[in-house]
Amino acid sequence: MAREISWKPMGENTIIGTDVARLDGIEKASGFAKYANDINTPGTLYGKVLTCPHAHAKIVSLDVEPAKKTPGVKAVHIFDGGMVGTELEWEGALVAAVAAETPEQAEDGVRAIKIEYEVLEHFVDEADLKGAESGPSQESPRKHQRGRGSSP
Amino acid sequence: MRDVENQAAANPPVTRPPDGNFNRRDFLKGSSAAAVATALATSATEAQDKQTKPNVVAAKAQKITLNVNGKDHEVTAEPRTLLLTVLRNQLNLTGCKDVDERDAAGADTVMIDGKPVLAGSRLAIECVGKKIKTVESLRNGDKIDEVIAGFVKHDGLQCGMCTPGFVMATRAFLDKNPKATLEEIQAGLGGNICRCGTYDGITKCTLELAKGGA
Asked: Using the beta-carbon criterion (under 8 Å), do B164 and A31 form an inter-chain contact?
Protein backbone atom coordinates (compact mmCIF):
# COMPACT_ATOMS: atom_id res chain seq x y z
CA MET A 1 0.00 0.00 0.00
CA ALA A 2 1.56 3.33 -1.12
CA ARG A 3 1.78 6.08 1.40
CA GLU A 4 0.67 9.41 0.10
CA ILE A 5 3.30 12.08 0.56
CA SER A 6 2.59 15.69 -0.26
CA TRP A 7 3.60 19.18 0.72
CA LYS A 8 1.62 20.97 3.32
CA PRO A 9 -0.68 23.66 2.00
CA MET A 10 1.00 26.98 1.24
CA GLY A 11 1.41 29.02 4.37
CA GLU A 12 1.85 26.00 6.59
CA ASN A 13 5.43 25.18 5.59
CA THR A 14 8.18 26.59 7.75
CA ILE A 15 10.58 27.35 4.89
CA ILE A 16 8.97 26.82 1.47
CA GLY A 17 6.92 29.79 0.37
CA THR A 18 8.12 32.09 3.13
CA ASP A 19 9.59 35.50 2.47
CA VAL A 20 13.36 35.69 2.82
CA ALA A 21 14.84 39.02 3.77
CA ARG A 22 17.04 40.50 1.05
CA LEU A 23 20.03 40.95 3.36
CA ASP A 24 22.20 42.79 0.83
CA GLY A 25 19.33 44.82 -0.60
CA ILE A 26 20.07 48.19 0.97
CA GLU A 27 23.83 47.92 0.43
CA LYS A 28 23.40 47.18 -3.26
CA ALA A 29 20.55 49.56 -3.97
CA SER A 30 22.28 52.47 -2.23
CA GLY A 31 25.53 51.92 -4.11
CA PHE A 32 27.47 51.11 -0.94
CA ALA A 33 28.16 47.46 -1.82
CA LYS A 34 31.73 47.10 -3.02
CA TYR A 35 32.42 44.95 -6.03
CA ALA A 36 35.90 43.86 -7.13
CA ASN A 37 36.20 46.80 -9.49
CA ASP A 38 35.19 49.27 -6.77
CA ILE A 39 38.14 48.69 -4.47
CA ASN A 40 40.55 51.62 -4.49
CA THR A 41 43.64 50.53 -2.62
CA PRO A 42 46.24 53.31 -2.64
CA GLY A 43 48.85 52.61 -5.29
CA THR A 44 46.50 50.57 -7.46
CA LEU A 45 47.58 50.58 -11.07
CA TYR A 46 45.23 50.43 -14.03
CA GLY A 47 45.75 48.04 -16.91
CA LYS A 48 44.86 48.21 -20.58
CA VAL A 49 45.44 45.55 -23.16
CA LEU A 50 46.65 45.69 -26.74
CA THR A 51 44.72 43.23 -28.85
CA CYS A 52 45.06 42.13 -32.45
CA PRO A 53 42.67 44.07 -34.68
CA HIS A 54 42.80 41.48 -37.43
CA ALA A 55 41.00 38.16 -37.71
CA HIS A 56 44.16 36.46 -38.91
CA ALA A 57 47.60 38.04 -38.82
CA LYS A 58 51.25 37.45 -38.08
CA ILE A 59 53.26 39.78 -35.87
CA VAL A 60 56.14 41.14 -37.94
CA SER A 61 57.63 43.53 -35.43
CA LEU A 62 56.86 44.71 -31.91
CA ASP A 63 58.44 47.54 -29.94
CA VAL A 64 57.13 48.24 -26.44
CA GLU A 65 59.88 50.67 -25.43
CA PRO A 66 57.75 53.74 -26.27
CA ALA A 67 55.08 52.35 -23.95
CA LYS A 68 57.60 51.97 -21.13
CA LYS A 69 58.62 55.60 -21.60
CA THR A 70 55.04 56.90 -21.54
CA PRO A 71 54.39 59.04 -18.44
CA GLY A 72 52.72 57.11 -15.67
CA VAL A 73 53.38 53.67 -17.12
CA LYS A 74 54.87 51.32 -14.55
CA ALA A 75 55.02 48.02 -16.39
CA VAL A 76 54.52 46.44 -19.78
CA HIS A 77 53.88 42.76 -20.30
CA ILE A 78 54.03 40.86 -23.57
CA PHE A 79 51.76 37.82 -23.73
CA ASP A 80 52.86 34.52 -25.30
CA GLY A 81 50.72 35.43 -28.26
CA GLY A 82 52.54 38.72 -28.61
CA MET A 83 55.93 37.31 -29.55
CA VAL A 84 57.23 38.33 -32.97
CA GLY A 85 56.37 35.68 -35.53
CA THR A 86 53.25 34.48 -33.76
CA GLU A 87 50.28 33.78 -35.96
CA LEU A 88 47.20 35.26 -34.28
CA GLU A 89 43.89 33.71 -35.19
CA TRP A 90 41.15 36.02 -34.00
CA GLU A 91 40.37 39.68 -33.63
CA GLY A 92 40.94 40.49 -30.00
CA ALA A 93 43.81 38.06 -29.43
CA LEU A 94 46.02 39.32 -26.61
CA VAL A 95 49.32 40.89 -27.59
CA ALA A 96 50.55 43.02 -24.69
CA ALA A 97 49.36 44.73 -21.52
CA VAL A 98 50.29 48.06 -19.95
CA ALA A 99 49.93 49.06 -16.29
CA ALA A 100 49.91 52.75 -15.35
CA GLU A 101 48.88 55.11 -12.59
CA THR A 102 45.69 56.27 -14.29
CA PRO A 103 43.46 54.53 -16.82
CA GLU A 104 44.15 57.29 -19.32
CA GLN A 105 47.90 56.84 -19.03
CA ALA A 106 47.50 53.10 -19.50
CA GLU A 107 45.65 53.79 -22.72
CA ASP A 108 48.43 56.17 -23.82
CA GLY A 109 50.89 53.38 -23.16
CA VAL A 110 48.94 50.93 -25.29
CA ARG A 111 48.70 53.47 -28.12
CA ALA A 112 52.46 54.05 -27.95
CA ILE A 113 53.26 50.44 -28.70
CA LYS A 114 54.69 50.06 -32.20
CA ILE A 115 53.48 46.91 -33.85
CA GLU A 116 53.37 45.72 -37.42
CA TYR A 117 51.09 42.96 -38.62
CA GLU A 118 51.18 40.90 -41.76
CA VAL A 119 47.48 40.58 -42.40
CA LEU A 120 46.51 37.09 -43.57
CA GLU A 121 43.36 35.65 -45.09
CA HIS A 122 40.50 34.61 -42.90
CA PHE A 123 37.30 32.69 -43.54
CA VAL A 124 33.89 34.09 -42.81
CA ASP A 125 31.49 31.70 -44.48
CA GLU A 126 31.25 28.48 -46.45
CA ALA A 127 32.07 30.13 -49.75
CA ASP A 128 35.41 31.24 -48.34
CA LEU A 129 36.16 27.72 -47.12
CA LYS A 130 35.25 26.10 -50.45
CA GLY A 131 37.42 28.58 -52.28
CA ALA A 132 40.36 27.78 -50.05
CA GLU A 133 39.88 24.04 -50.36
CA SER A 134 39.74 24.12 -54.13
CA GLY A 135 42.58 26.62 -54.57
CA PRO A 136 46.33 25.96 -54.55
CA SER A 137 47.33 24.69 -51.13
CA GLN A 138 50.21 26.95 -50.25
CA GLU A 139 48.31 27.56 -47.06
CA SER A 140 48.88 25.37 -44.08
CA PRO A 141 46.82 22.17 -43.86
CA ARG A 142 45.52 23.31 -40.49
CA LYS A 143 43.33 25.89 -42.19
CA HIS A 144 41.31 23.26 -43.98
CA GLN A 145 40.69 21.37 -40.80
CA ARG A 146 39.42 24.48 -39.09
CA GLY A 147 36.31 24.78 -41.22
CA ARG A 148 33.13 24.25 -39.28
CA GLY A 149 29.68 23.37 -40.48
CA SER A 150 28.78 21.07 -43.33
CA SER A 151 30.82 20.58 -46.45
CA PRO A 152 29.95 18.22 -49.31
CA MET B 1 48.96 49.83 -35.40
CA ARG B 2 50.69 50.65 -38.66
CA ASP B 3 50.53 54.37 -38.40
CA VAL B 4 53.17 55.30 -35.85
CA GLU B 5 53.22 59.01 -36.66
CA ASN B 6 51.25 60.99 -34.16
CA GLN B 7 48.80 63.40 -35.55
CA ALA B 8 48.23 65.92 -32.79
CA ALA B 9 49.12 69.55 -32.99
CA ALA B 10 52.40 70.49 -31.36
CA ASN B 11 50.80 73.29 -29.36
CA PRO B 12 51.49 73.22 -25.65
CA PRO B 13 48.48 72.27 -23.53
CA VAL B 14 46.05 75.12 -23.00
CA THR B 15 45.15 75.70 -19.40
CA ARG B 16 41.63 77.00 -19.29
CA PRO B 17 40.09 78.53 -16.19
CA PRO B 18 37.35 76.12 -15.18
CA ASP B 19 34.46 78.55 -15.46
CA GLY B 20 31.74 79.46 -17.90
CA ASN B 21 34.33 80.34 -20.55
CA PHE B 22 34.87 76.67 -21.21
CA ASN B 23 34.27 76.01 -24.85
CA ARG B 24 34.77 72.47 -26.09
CA ARG B 25 35.50 73.43 -29.67
CA ASP B 26 38.27 75.84 -28.74
CA PHE B 27 39.71 73.39 -26.29
CA LEU B 28 39.84 70.62 -28.89
CA LYS B 29 41.44 72.92 -31.47
CA GLY B 30 44.13 74.18 -29.16
CA SER B 31 45.02 71.20 -26.98
CA SER B 32 47.48 68.42 -27.59
CA ALA B 33 45.02 65.59 -26.97
CA ALA B 34 46.03 63.05 -29.56
CA ALA B 35 42.90 61.36 -30.77
CA VAL B 36 40.69 64.39 -31.35
CA ALA B 37 42.95 66.85 -33.11
CA THR B 38 42.83 65.36 -36.57
CA ALA B 39 39.10 64.68 -36.67
CA LEU B 40 38.03 68.10 -35.48
CA ALA B 41 40.83 70.35 -36.63
CA THR B 42 39.98 73.33 -38.74
CA SER B 43 41.97 73.87 -41.89
CA ALA B 44 44.17 76.38 -40.11
CA THR B 45 45.14 73.89 -37.47
CA GLU B 46 45.74 71.19 -40.06
CA ALA B 47 48.12 73.41 -41.96
CA GLN B 48 49.99 74.00 -38.75
CA ASP B 49 50.16 70.25 -38.14
CA LYS B 50 51.84 69.67 -41.46
CA GLN B 51 54.52 72.27 -40.83
CA THR B 52 55.60 71.23 -37.36
CA LYS B 53 56.75 67.79 -36.31
CA PRO B 54 53.77 66.21 -34.58
CA ASN B 55 54.32 65.08 -31.04
CA VAL B 56 51.74 63.68 -28.71
CA VAL B 57 51.65 65.21 -25.28
CA ALA B 58 48.56 64.52 -23.24
CA ALA B 59 47.15 67.75 -21.88
CA LYS B 60 48.31 67.95 -18.31
CA ALA B 61 46.30 66.94 -15.30
CA GLN B 62 45.03 69.86 -13.28
CA LYS B 63 43.35 70.35 -9.94
CA ILE B 64 39.68 71.20 -10.16
CA THR B 65 36.87 71.53 -7.67
CA LEU B 66 33.74 69.46 -8.02
CA ASN B 67 30.64 69.88 -5.89
CA VAL B 68 29.44 66.39 -5.11
CA ASN B 69 26.60 65.52 -2.73
CA GLY B 70 26.63 69.00 -1.29
CA LYS B 71 30.35 69.27 -0.61
CA ASP B 72 33.24 70.73 -2.58
CA HIS B 73 36.02 68.27 -3.38
CA GLU B 74 39.40 69.00 -4.93
CA VAL B 75 40.29 66.36 -7.49
CA THR B 76 42.86 65.91 -10.23
CA ALA B 77 41.75 65.50 -13.82
CA GLU B 78 43.20 65.63 -17.28
CA PRO B 79 40.87 67.34 -19.75
CA ARG B 80 39.92 63.93 -21.13
CA THR B 81 39.18 62.35 -17.74
CA LEU B 82 35.55 61.33 -17.35
CA LEU B 83 33.42 62.42 -14.41
CA LEU B 84 32.78 58.72 -13.86
CA THR B 85 36.49 58.02 -13.40
CA VAL B 86 36.92 60.85 -10.89
CA LEU B 87 33.86 59.86 -8.84
CA ARG B 88 34.91 56.22 -8.65
CA ASN B 89 38.68 56.41 -8.36
CA GLN B 90 39.30 59.61 -6.42
CA LEU B 91 36.16 60.25 -4.40
CA ASN B 92 35.53 56.56 -3.80
CA LEU B 93 31.87 57.02 -4.77
CA THR B 94 31.63 53.68 -6.50
CA GLY B 95 27.83 53.58 -6.68
CA CYS B 96 27.97 54.65 -10.30
CA LYS B 97 29.39 51.71 -12.17
CA ASP B 98 31.87 51.56 -15.03
CA VAL B 99 30.09 48.83 -16.94
CA ASP B 100 30.19 49.52 -20.61
CA GLU B 101 32.62 51.38 -22.81
CA ARG B 102 29.83 52.51 -25.08
CA ASP B 103 28.10 54.02 -22.07
CA ALA B 104 24.70 52.64 -23.05
CA ALA B 105 23.69 50.68 -19.96
CA GLY B 106 22.82 53.52 -17.60
CA ALA B 107 24.70 51.97 -14.69
CA ASP B 108 26.61 55.25 -14.24
CA THR B 109 23.54 57.44 -13.80
CA VAL B 110 24.08 60.42 -11.51
CA MET B 111 22.25 63.71 -11.19
CA ILE B 112 23.75 66.97 -12.36
CA ASP B 113 21.77 70.07 -11.45
CA GLY B 114 18.75 67.87 -10.83
CA LYS B 115 18.80 66.06 -14.17
CA PRO B 116 19.77 62.40 -14.58
CA VAL B 117 23.03 62.21 -16.52
CA LEU B 118 25.43 59.40 -17.41
CA ALA B 119 28.67 60.15 -15.58
CA GLY B 120 30.57 58.35 -18.31
CA SER B 121 29.34 60.85 -20.87
CA ARG B 122 30.76 63.90 -19.14
CA LEU B 123 34.29 65.17 -18.80
CA ALA B 124 35.16 66.00 -15.21
CA ILE B 125 36.25 69.51 -16.15
CA GLU B 126 32.90 70.38 -17.70
CA CYS B 127 31.12 69.55 -14.45
CA VAL B 128 32.90 72.25 -12.46
CA GLY B 129 30.40 74.64 -10.93
CA LYS B 130 27.52 72.19 -11.20
CA LYS B 131 25.73 70.34 -8.42
CA ILE B 132 26.48 66.66 -8.75
CA LYS B 133 24.52 64.06 -6.80
CA THR B 134 25.40 60.40 -6.68
CA VAL B 135 23.30 57.45 -5.46
CA GLU B 136 25.11 57.55 -2.12
CA SER B 137 23.26 60.77 -1.35
CA LEU B 138 19.99 58.81 -1.13
CA ARG B 139 21.15 57.10 2.03
CA ASN B 140 22.26 58.51 5.36
CA GLY B 141 23.22 55.71 7.72
CA ASP B 142 19.98 53.85 8.31
CA LYS B 143 17.84 56.50 6.68
CA ILE B 144 17.15 55.49 3.11
CA ASP B 145 15.23 57.10 0.30
CA GLU B 146 11.81 55.59 -0.49
CA VAL B 147 13.16 54.39 -3.85
CA ILE B 148 15.84 52.31 -2.14
CA ALA B 149 13.27 50.91 0.28
CA GLY B 150 10.96 50.09 -2.61
CA PHE B 151 13.69 48.28 -4.52
CA VAL B 152 14.43 46.12 -1.49
CA LYS B 153 10.76 45.47 -0.76
CA HIS B 154 9.93 44.39 -4.32
CA ASP B 155 13.30 42.67 -4.82
CA GLY B 156 14.12 44.86 -7.80
CA LEU B 157 17.72 43.71 -7.78
CA GLN B 158 19.76 40.57 -8.22
CA CYS B 159 23.49 40.96 -8.76
CA GLY B 160 23.11 44.64 -7.97
CA MET B 161 25.39 46.01 -10.68
CA CYS B 162 22.70 47.98 -12.55
CA THR B 163 20.79 48.79 -9.38
CA PRO B 164 22.39 52.05 -8.22
CA GLY B 165 21.99 53.46 -11.73
CA PHE B 166 18.37 52.33 -11.80
CA VAL B 167 17.76 53.82 -8.36
CA MET B 168 19.09 57.20 -9.49
CA ALA B 169 17.09 57.06 -12.71
CA THR B 170 13.95 56.12 -10.79
CA ARG B 171 14.47 58.88 -8.24
CA ALA B 172 14.97 61.48 -10.97
CA PHE B 173 12.01 60.11 -12.94
CA LEU B 174 9.64 60.20 -9.97
CA ASP B 175 10.78 63.69 -9.08
CA LYS B 176 9.51 64.80 -12.47
CA ASN B 177 6.56 62.38 -12.77
CA PRO B 178 5.20 61.66 -9.31
CA LYS B 179 1.94 60.22 -10.67
CA ALA B 180 3.35 58.26 -13.63
CA THR B 181 1.44 55.52 -15.40
CA LEU B 182 2.90 52.13 -16.23
CA GLU B 183 3.57 53.17 -19.83
CA GLU B 184 5.29 56.35 -18.67
CA ILE B 185 7.43 54.38 -16.24
CA GLN B 186 8.48 51.87 -18.87
CA ALA B 187 9.46 54.68 -21.20
CA GLY B 188 11.02 56.83 -18.49
CA LEU B 189 13.28 54.09 -17.17
CA GLY B 190 14.16 52.95 -20.68
CA GLY B 191 17.65 54.38 -20.35
CA ASN B 192 18.78 51.65 -17.97
CA ILE B 193 19.52 48.07 -18.86
CA CYS B 194 19.55 45.05 -16.53
CA ARG B 195 21.21 41.79 -17.54
CA CYS B 196 19.75 39.83 -14.65
CA GLY B 197 16.21 40.76 -15.64
CA THR B 198 14.96 42.61 -12.58
CA TYR B 199 12.60 44.81 -14.55
CA ASP B 200 9.55 43.27 -12.93
CA GLY B 201 10.53 44.21 -9.39
CA ILE B 202 11.74 47.65 -10.47
CA THR B 203 8.48 48.36 -12.28
CA LYS B 204 6.39 47.19 -9.32
CA CYS B 205 8.40 49.39 -6.97
CA THR B 206 8.09 52.43 -9.21
CA LEU B 207 4.36 51.88 -9.80
CA GLU B 208 3.75 51.66 -6.08
CA LEU B 209 5.68 54.87 -5.42
CA ALA B 210 3.89 56.60 -8.27
CA LYS B 211 0.50 55.65 -6.89
CA GLY B 212 1.17 57.30 -3.60
CA GLY B 213 3.93 55.56 -1.71
CA ALA B 214 4.74 52.25 -0.10
From this structure: yes
